[in-house]
């Protein structure tokens, strides 16, 4: 096996990325404290060609050395918007036809391993999904959970009750992306 060099991977330029079709997925960060976590979400968003990242409340925004350290330029390729209040962001997304999913441990949450049993808006080329990730300590605010169409939970089997928000985002973005990839074809 030959380890590929960056030049051999035929990656998009930032301009090509901006002009390309995206999967109908928006990531919403609800009061995420760590700029490093924000940067990691941008990098993952770039990897899976999501539409946008919405940065809300105390969540750091570019330009930021801390965001850039983990985003490695993903903050330049992935579009982003800032909202002072996450509720305003969610309301705007719902007005534009997005289904809003909060990633939170709640009663009646959809377990990630059962996501294939649920109809995902956007998978048929119509509509889209917004996924809300919460603060590293407090999670997604209750009022945002109340505004959500559904909540998603990653099953866990150890002693801890949560994962780092950037790790959670990577897992969830991938799961939605693989179901929404058909929107990039054609």
From TrEMBL:
Keywords: Methyltransferase, Transferase. InterPro entries: Alpha/beta_knot_MTases (IPR029028), rRNA_MeTrfase_TrmH (IPR004441), SpoU_MeTrfase (IPR001537), tRNA_m1G_MTases_N (IPR029026). One of its GO terms (molecular function) is RNA binding. Residues 25-173 form the tRNA/rRNA methyltransferase SpoU type domain. Signal peptide: none annotated. It comes from the Bacteria. GO terms for biological process: methylation; RNA processing. GO terms for cellular component: cytosol. This is tRNA/rRNA methyltransferase.
């Amino acid at each position: 096996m030959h380890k590929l060099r960056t030049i051999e991977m035929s990656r998009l330029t930032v301009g090509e990325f901006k002009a390309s079709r995206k999967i109908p997925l928006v990531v919403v960060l609800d009061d995420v404290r760590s700029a490093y976590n924000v940067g990691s979400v941008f990098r993952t968003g770039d990897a899976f060609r999501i539409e946008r990242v919405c940065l809300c409340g105390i969540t750091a925004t570019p330009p930021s050395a801390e965001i850039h350290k983990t985003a490695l330029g993903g903050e330049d390729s992935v579009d982003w918007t800032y909202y002072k209040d996450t509720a305003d962001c969610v309301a705007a997304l719902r007005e534009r036809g997005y289904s809003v999913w909060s990633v939170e441990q709640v009663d009646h949450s959809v377990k990630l391993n059962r996501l294939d049993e649920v109809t995902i808006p956007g998978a048929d080329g119509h509509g889209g999904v917004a996924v809300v990730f919460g603060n590293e300590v407090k999670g997604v605010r209750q009022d945002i959970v109340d505004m959500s169409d559904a909540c998603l939970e990653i099953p866990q089997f150890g002693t801890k009750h949560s994962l780092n928000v950037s790790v959670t985002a990577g897992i969830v973005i991938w799961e939605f992306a693989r179901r929404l990839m058909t929107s990039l074809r054609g």
